[in-house]
Design brief:
The complex is a heterodimer of chains A (205) and B (184). Chain A has 205 residues and is of the alpha+beta class. Helices cover 33% and strands 20% of the residues of chain A. The chains are: A alpha+beta (205), B alpha/beta (184). Chains A and B meet through helix 1 and strand 10 of A and helix 1, helix 5 and strand 5 of B.
Chain lengths: 205, 184
């Protein structure tokens, strides 16, 4: 009897391991309404950062970004502006570099420190060490924004996508997707545009 | 008994991995690069700059040819790596009704400083056009409803047959896809 149970277990493990690879690569990440995982990642100041550290936050702008992508660079000033505007309203920016520095040396931890200092980042800029967090979110590129709302059940995904609709010229933006989403969330209103797409640099993992 | 179980397990494991390995076991076609007259753009004036409405007809030409449309940029490492494969397709198959279009998504300020010198240096003979349209959330789904927006991304189509690939190609994989379209 015991032996049969054991055989069953072995076959089960074999089956699951046989398909794990495919499941992993087809990871689609979060949809709107899902609850996002917390993380503990190292910030450029050496401190570990988790969403749970922010006891008074109403939500978060989790932004996957990096040093090396021209689109990410084009949005740096706008990410700083988002943090300045919304941190005081309870929705701080948490920037995560999802790239593997071994594959993209320009996105090393030291280069992250340097870039944050040059630009005067006002928000944590953490490294997704081991590239464990971005696949769970389903981030595919930089920059890629996830707006989370803190609820009793967890941090719920409210918006996924681009910051606005003009990467090349901040003054020519027609629709500020992220600002519209945060404003609606803070007012308790329905977010009209919950997902947007944009060209970005694929994440190097 | 235990040996049998192990056998079953390893068969199952292999089965799970098979779909990936299939992609890597592609034919290695012997190809001879045909002699073509390169028409490499020498300045920005030689490159068409389109918004999406102007580009869109290039994605829907019903002329019996196989069209290979690759979205790329000079800053995109994997794109630059696979460009020679598209060039080889262009060189090898242009006389077999295969047309390659390389759609650059480089930003305007990089056109003169980066894109044109890159095309000249690499001697790119395929047709290069620039897509300059900031309303990405509008046009990305029009290229393909499933495109998240990462590059490289490629469309291969012939008439109503169409495939979209949001991934880099090896030469063999690209050649195989194009060959499949030629049979359609």
């Amino acid at each position: 009897m015991k032996a049969i149970k054991l055989i069953g277990l072995v076959i089960f493990v074999a089956l699951t391991s046989a398909f794990t690879y495919n499941v992993y690569t087809e990871e689609k990440g979060y949809d709107i309404g899902d609850y996002a995982t917390d993380f503990t990642l190292k910030n450029i100041d050496g401190q570990m950062v988790s969403l749970s550290d922010y006891t008074n936050a109403k939500g978060f702008l989790v932004i996957f970004t990096c040093n090396s992508c021209p689109y990410a660079v084009a949005y740096e000033d706008r990410i700083i502006a988002l943090d300045k505007k919304y941190k005081s309203m309870g929705v701080p920016v948490i920037a995560i570099n999802p790239n593997n520095p071994d594959l993209k040396p320009a996105d090393s931890f030291d280069k992250m420190k340097l870039r944050a200092k040059e630009k005067g980042f006002t928000f944590p800029y953490v490294l997704d060490e081991g590239q464990k967090i971005y696949p769970q979110y389903g981030a595919s590129k930089t920059p890629h924004v996830y707006l989370l709302e803190k609820t009793p059940k967890g941090n719920q995904v409210k918006y996924i996508g681009a910051i606005d609709d003009n990467y090349s010229d901040a003054s020519a933006v027609d629709t500020k997707y992220v600002e519209d989403a945060v404003n609606a969330m803070l007012k308790g209103e329905e977010i009209k545009v919950t997902t947007t797409r944009a060209i970005g640099c694929s994440i190097k993992a | 008994m235990i040996r049998n179980i192990l056998l079953v397990c390893s068969v199952l494991c292999l089965w799970g991995c098979a779909s990936k390995e299939k992609k890597e076991q592609l034919e290695d076609p012997e190809t001879t690069i045909s002699q073509t007259t390169p028409t490499v753009p020498k300045s920005l004036n030689d490159i068409a700059i389109y918004n999406f409405d102007e580009l869109e007809p290039l994605l829907h030409q019903d002329d019996g040819k196989v069209h290979v449309v690759n979205f790329w940029a000079t800053w995109c490492g994997p794109c630059v790596k696979e460009l020679p494969y598209f060039e080889r397709i262009h060189a090898d198959l242009q006389d077999q009704n295969v047309e390659v279009v390389l759609v650059s998504l480089d930003m305007p300020k990089k056109w003169e400083s980066q894109l044109v010198p890159f095309i000249e240096k690499k001697g790119i003979a395929s047709k290069v056009v620039i897509l300059n349209d900031t309303k990405q959330n509008t046009w990305i789904p029009k290229v393909d409803k499933d495109w998240s927006g990462t590059i490289p991304a490629t469309i291969i189509y012939k008439g109503e047959h169409r495939m979209f690939y949001e991934e880099p190609f090896t030469y063999d994989a690209l050649r195989k896809e194009v060959t499949n379209f030629l049979k359609k």
